[in-house]
Amino acid sequence: MNSKDSAPVKPAGPTAPQLTSRDLLRQFWADAYGKEVQTAATYSYTWLADQFGHICIGLVVDFPATVVSGLVMVQLGWAPKFEYDTGIWPGLIFTIAVVAYWEWRAYQSSVKQATGAFPLDSKLLRDNAIIAATYMTLGAILGFAFHLPLKPAILISAGVVVAAIVLAPRWLRQKIIWQKASMPYLFRLADAAPNIGSEDAKTLQNLIDAGAPPVTEPCQIIIGGPIGSGRTSMAAGIGTEFAFKQNKVRYLGLDCLLEFATNASDRVFPDDAGPATISYWPWSQAQVVIIDGVGPFVASNEPGREANVARFKTMLQNELGTVAGVLKRCHTVWVLGDLSPPPPRGQFDTVLNEFAKAVAAYCESSSDPLVVELDLPPARQPNKGAIFGTTRSAAHATTIRSVRRVSKN
């Protein structure tokens, strides 16, 4: 833990993300100047590297396009002889057309891969393709400038640099908001398995679309399912959707939360800010808190490792009592874990419902909690192949059996 991060800068309570220009510059400097082999690689670093790569692609493609265009012009009699700048205009136009078509095809491919259970964020996907094509176009313009005399080459190159900087803040802000959530990986719900019921998907999507506290009333989400059902993927998916809608999300394990709660007081809530290149959102200020790894703490010492609801309630009241005032003010996602040995389906439903009621009572919720019950993907069902088999695509990493509201009473 980082002792210097023992107290948040602001009072506890859900607040929306705020990133100033200074924050963006600080992150840019950490990503551009630092070496990822020495520090934790960030999602903003990946985006910057991608855009530098896109510029280089445009630059590299423009040169052979210019050469070929010049040779064709000479052969067709459109130019008296071949010079280094003979085909600069056709080469530039050809390069822009090629990169635009490439990104359009990539966008269409991503749209086709969406399973349809959850709505595809097609606007963001389209904008992402446009920005990639734009940076490749900037690279092509840079290649074009290299064929010009010194003064116009410098002016055009400076314009490319300015344009690249102006376009970056929106995308860096989005990546930073996501990476400060401390989630294990990015997962969009549109990539979840396609056999999810439309009403189940709609129930969960409506909650995400409604926003997060303090704009909306806090809600508790309980995720349960067997090993391999994609519990962490579902939690990361919910967190990713909230983060991409400009909400402050924080993912942490129950072990960390228990340690934080042990040292918490009325106004001081210990935290771990994570790598210096990221600095996670303080969990006590998050609008959505994802708590993973609950299962082992409520089952590890029980005969057969059965889930013990009574023990869970005791842990909430005693070990997590000091942070109840924070968690009841935000959306909380509780990743319950495996309730093994596998009980009959009806019993499994009942156990999940009891855990959901316990969480709602702990958070003093005014609304009914939401249960997301997961199942093994078809390729991993015991009667449909080896239980340890791998699935064919990420789309089948998470299979929802049901999404239901549970009466908190």
Describe the 3D structure.
The structure is a single chain. This protein is α/β, with parallel strands linked by helices. 48% of the residues lie in helices and 9% in strands. The chain has a six-stranded mixed sheet, with helices on both faces.
Briefly characterize the structure.
This protein has 409 residues and is of the alpha/beta class.
How many strands appear in the DSSP assignment?
A: 6
User: Helices and strands, in N-to-C order?
Assistant: HHHHHHEHEHEHHHEHEE
**Average pLDDT taken over every residue:** 85
CATH domain topology of the largest domain: Rossmann fold
N- to C-terminal separation? 38 Å
Overview features:
409 residues, alpha/beta, Rossmann fold, six-stranded mixed beta sheet, 6 strands, 48% helix, disordered N terminus
Topology:
Blueprint lengths: L20 H13 L9 H33 L12 H26 L8 H24 L4 H30 L18 H12 L10 E5 L6 H14 L4 E5 H9 L25 E5 L2 H5 L9 H9 L6 H4 L3 E7 L7 H18 L7 E6 L23 E7 L4
Parallel strand pairs: 1-4, 1-5, 2-3, 3-4
Antiparallel strand pairs: 5-6
